[in-house]
Amino acid sequence: MIKMLNIETDYKEVFALSQFAFQYHLSDEELHKKKAEAWRHIIWGNMDGDHIASKLHLIPLSIYLGDKKINMGGISSVATWPEYRRGGMVKELLSHALHHMKNNGQIISFLQPFSVSFYRKYGWEITFNEKLYTIPVDKLRKKWDASGYVRTKPFDYQTINSIYEEYAKTYNGALVRDERWWNQRVIKDKSYIGVAYNLEKRPVGYIQYEVKENVFHVHDFAYTSNNGWNILLEFIANHDSMAKEVKMTVPENDLLPLLVDEPRFEQKIEPYFMARITDVHQFLKEYPFLNSTNGITLHVKDDFFPDNTKTYQLTTTNITVLPYQDHSKGIYCTIQQLTAMMLNFVRPVDLYRIGQLKGSLDEIQKLDATISDQKPYFPDFF
Fold first, then answer.
1. What's the pLDDT tens digit per position in 81-137?
2. Where's the N-acetyltransferase domain (predicted)?
3. What element of type H or E holds 183?
4. Nearest one of 66, 146, 147, 168 to 373, comparing CA atoms
5. Which of 217, 245, 270 is the last residue of a domain?
6. Count of alpha carbons within 13 Å of 138, Cβ hemisphere only?
7. Do 92 and 149 reside in the same domain of the chain?
């Protein structure tokens, strides 16, 4: 039986399962901090009597698709006690969560998987990679032609979030951060915040960082112009007396190696977050297509959540939803492929070339021309 849990009364049992499943320990202070962070979570337990056998957290959030804000449901802290595993409890919780998200307008869902293959079975697909740099600090020592300066300041939501928001809108999938999210999930206790200003004293970038054991750790950053990025890079390089190397995570399409004189430093790309569209019809209605979709037909298969298994005929102003049609004109794809394409993790023509998308090349090229060219980026975690 699935039951909605109450964070005020059930938090000890909820976090006891999390600590066991994810192998960490919370002090009393950390436990109460976790409880405070979970204020926005909807938590369901798959129950054995009054005992939580398995649980799932749903976090109502929003993301940017370009300038548009889209409601997103974040799946988090999915865990089961060992004696109840492989009994289908998580499958039931995921189905329950998908119905809830669709009914509440959360038209896409993100999660950080313990196993990619496990969540692929239920319709999620990798759509975000992390690019991790480890850079010897001397490789950043150069003339950056930066017109401005950095000042270290306490966190100011209005200033920092305005920079982040402008930066986030240039990607697909970046989180909309409210002030509470910043304070609870982004700002770290022992870190510093440097704000980059141009010569007109306008904030054009920020960096959250700390230096320890000769390493400059970049926890978060954003900028609104190339000059803002140059100011931040010059600021990092000026820590050469304190740090031997810099560690930072950047968008997958970051081009820093082209800006430095010696680009041979450690660069790793790793799969990070998965996504899945929860309501195809509504998602297509809200998606910021670049060009006319008139004449595009999508036959979408969603084995786990068959509400989405339909044929979608798109025009410039409307979407007609029909029962799923086999052997018809149009493009055939799974919910995983559709999600990856719409976030621009992979282009339709590339899926077609490797045999993962069915349809005529002309139809697929037409779809390709309508999809956002902004790359996916998710610099958060839940």
1. 999 999 999 999 999 999 999 999 999 999 999 999 999 999 999 999 999 999 999
2. 2-145
3. none
4. 66
5. 270
6. 1
7. no
In this structure, are 260 and 292 located in the same domain? no
Which residues sit opposite 68 in a β-bridge? 65
* Total domain count, the chain: 3
Name the phi and psi angles at 12, rounded to 5: -65, -45
Question: Alpha-carbon distance 336 to 313, whole Å?
Answer: 19
Domain enclosing residue 311, as ranges = 279-370
- Please check whether residue 45 lies inside any domain of the structure: yes
User: What does the pLDDT look like over 42-75, one tens digit per residue?
Assistant: 999 999 999 999 999 999 999 999 899 999 999 9
Ranges of beta strands (E only) in 273-348 are: 274-277, 296-301, 310-314, 319-323, 331-334
DSSP state, residue 3: E
* 209-234: b (≥16 Cβ within 10 Å) or e: beeeeeebbbbbbbbbbebbbbbbbb
Show which of 106, 140, 167 is a domain's final residue: 106
For the stretch 179-205, pLDDT in tens is 999 999 999 999 999 999 999 999 999
**Whether residue 287 sits in one domain with residue 217:** no
Residues in the chain: 382
By C-alpha distance, which of 2, 278, 17 is closest to 122?
A: 278
Q: 244 and 140 in one domain? A: yes
Helical residues (DSSP H) of the chain, grouped into ranges:
7-22, 28-37, 89-103, 116-120, 157-168, 179-181, 226-237, 256-259, 280-286, 335-342, 348-353, 361-370
pTM of full prediction above 0.90: yes
- Cα–Cα distance between 258 and 268 in angstroms, integer? 16
Q: Percent of the chain having pLDDT more than 90? A: 99
Task: Copy the structure tokens of residue 41.
Answer: 């979570």
CA distances from 59 to 197, 248, 287 (A): 35, 26, 22
Beta bridge partners of 52: 47
What values do phi and psi take at 137, rounded to 5?
-60, -30
Rounded Cα distance, 331 and 333, in Å = 7
* CA-to-CA dists, residue 198 to 212, 233, 244, 329, angstroms: 28, 14, 28, 54
Task: Give me the CATH number covering residue 151.
Answer: 3.40.630.30
